[in-house]
Batch of 2 targets.
Target 1
Amino acid sequence: MRRMGSSFAAGILFAIGLGVSGMTDANKVISFLNLAGDWDPSLAFVMVGGIGVHMMFYRLVMRRPSPLFEASFSVPAQGEISPQLVSGAALFGIGWGMGGFCPGPGLVSSVSLSSPAVVFVVFMSLGMMLHQVVARKPASTTRSA
Amino acid sequence: MISAIMAATAGGALIGLAATWLLLSNGKIAGVSGIYGGLLAGWNQDTQWKVAFVIGLVVGGALLVNILPGAIAAPDGRSLLLVAAAGVFVGFGTRLGNGCTSGHGICGLSRYSLRSLVATLTFMLTGFATATLLGVLGG
């Protein structure tokens, strides 16, 4: 119960952060990514704020032997730079530039029930399931570090 | 512009705090594509916290609609067909590449992951290229 409650709280805070930052405004995202238009570089500072805070706290948190409500941390192991990593990221960027949505802002925006946000989430889900079929991955990919 | 930069930095800091809280409480990485995509992949021991996180995102969205009207806006000048195709690219690509703007861009870079650096540079590059091309073409 505490695990679900804390995860729920993290989701709310994450969504508020996305909204405050401007990431849930797809037009703002597009004017950040479109270098040929009226360029708005402000969204680059989402990474400045996010990484600045998380980089500092990540190191503090990982000094603990375990998280508060779980037996161990589930942090991905350092893997190799695979063709899947690069091609997947490349496809993701193309889709991001096409629609102005990445996964978090897409899910958050879907509550507005605007047609683009709903269509985006439906087809993003289909794309994820398509990958599931193509890759035939086992359901869990997290590894304990 | 200054206020937009301050808002972006503050919002980013909140995202960083949310990621920190998920790591401290549950030991998990706040990567939205992995969390949501994992749910679509089937039921396992991670399903409960992932469902809770996604419900949190949606509830947070509902709060935004009320406290920050205008924060959520759909893309102008993008046809639904283009948005649908964008969804497939984002869904397939984030699962193939094991992460998105949050998992690679915020969490991965914060823990100095070389994989996440390569992924982030790649999706930024193709994101800039695609949106710029569509902008030039008037799409």
Target 2
Amino acid sequence: MSIFVNKDTKVVYQGLTGSQGRFYGLRNRDYGTQVVAGTNPKKAGEDVDGIPIYASVGEAVQATGATASCVFIPAPGVASAVLEAAEGGVEFVVVITEGVPAHDEARFYNRLRRDFPNVQLLGPNCPGIITPGECNIGITAGEIAKPGGPVGIVSRSGTLTYQALYELKLKDIGVTTCVGIGGDPVPGTSFIDCLSRFEADPDTKAVMMIGEIGGTAEEEAAEFIAKEMSKPVCAYVAGVTAPPGRKMGHAGAIVSGGKGTAAAKMEALSGAGVRVAQNPTEAADLMADVVAGL
Amino acid sequence: MDLFEFQGKQFFAQYGIPVSPGEAVKTVDEAVAVADKVGYPVVAKAQVQVGGRGKAGGIKLANDAEEVRTHASNILGMDIKGHEVKILWIEKASDIAEEYYASFTLDRSAKKHLGMLSAEGGVEIEAVAASNPEAIARIHVDPVEGLTEAQCRSWVEAAKLNPAATDGAVDILLKLYNAYVEGDADLVEINPLILTPEGKVHALDAKVTLDGNADFRHPEREDWKGLEVLDDREKMARERGLQYIGLTGSVGIIANGAGLAMSTLDVVNQVGGEPANFLDIGGGANATVMANALEVINTDQNVRSIFINIFGGITRGEEVANGIVEALGRVEIGSPIVIRLDGTNADEGRAILKEHETANPVGPGGGSLISRPTMLDAARTAVELASR
């Protein structure tokens, strides 16, 4: 079992004809993902290494039965690409693109919630999602993940997600699904969205959560874990040594006024019974202990 | 990007928000000329991006040209909490009947915009929020629906401003919301928003943070960028499109992804070292980006070792390795480099590095290249090299 995506997920790539879209679309297909279509209004009827290109997501869904989309469109076009995907009839939209304006994110997040409540958005500015051995949508290097569970991963940081997968694999620990929710101000999928699904997924026995400074998403997750989760959770929060008041890359990773610090987040998580690590390697060590005791 | 007050006022003026007539100046003579033009009395305000200007003597009222001269020469060049005053804003002084607070920003938890309005303006709003939270009227605005005049009016009424200010406040707040959205700002704040004895409402201060991700649709921002407060390393990094923040330690850091870069800082710190910087080369980093990153770090005199921490997702291992090799050919790197490379095409990358290491044994310049298998190992090696 897994959350959000599995071997039956059929994916259309918006931007498959671009260099990044092509590279990762084909990589995802090589991994075993059902990459059924690409879109580009100017190249409809052509193909990318045998994958048919359609003018729109709607046409791709009609022709192929695609259930998910993956967006590799440059930032200025992301807002319309997300709406095109929702209108086209997919139920899961993964946006890899970074640098999307925050006001665009706020608008399309709320537009989906109002007009397309059944569409789940992941990202923007995220590495994507992988159910190891079944489906890899996005830019994660699939070979660093061991299939099968018992651990579910949810992470705000791209490279730290890969780090977590890799460290677990070195310890021969498998993963049900790994979701990179991204570090932007308005993430389509939250920690809580993932935690609740992991709690309900019978094959996920423990969850690793990777947060970073800024915002209050980790604190909200801690509250949810204390109230709703029966499964053990290990966590790491990046940015303990980040200087206050400075923006560190992600629009989301900003500390101000003593709120959203790594220390505050780690304290909230510890208070909720989460095992909190000081670095990514220690997080994997803690998870290995948890898995050994399952 | 944080705007200076005078830039914030220019930004507000573009969206029709009333501000006091004034101009930014860099010399005493210019200050007097502007004061003569807008009419006395005037206020001279130091343009620094730090709070507490007034207490530090950076805001002064002047009744005539002589007073402008005195205050301008005192304030220009003044040091306010480590910020040197290079620009002075001269504006016509306003009579103040009441001072309010108004702002819009994103509420990440609610995933909607949050407007805050208070009759207790002119002071630190954090203090009001802590001591008397009911004094702040809050409104959540749906980013799709926008802010209607009716919503805005009931919000203003909830804030219990002087009834004489209601119409003026509604007008300004609708314009402020428009500036926030159309101008792609992360934050717009007016503190104080004033009511004059004549019943006019206008912005006496302007705090604006713009979302850099929206630069592509705001060519007008170019004018404001030249004045950003950056140290030389940050300036160089900015010109090369790198996410860089200068720190004070001796271990130079290059990583891909903000999370991994932050984590690299944390790990260096845990093993007893001090990072010299935060540098995220981002998702699509290629050979040129890596070479640029190394060159920026190389200009930092405090750096004794460089720790490159790459986990490949969108960045491919061979591109990273080629970038390092290219940079080593382009500039003489003054410090040993410790690299930890994993992820997409890591084997190809490691092979390229290995080939370079074999062909270029450690020279007298100290430009050695050391590969380490894990983050912790690499951090320990980098910290040890930095303390030699």
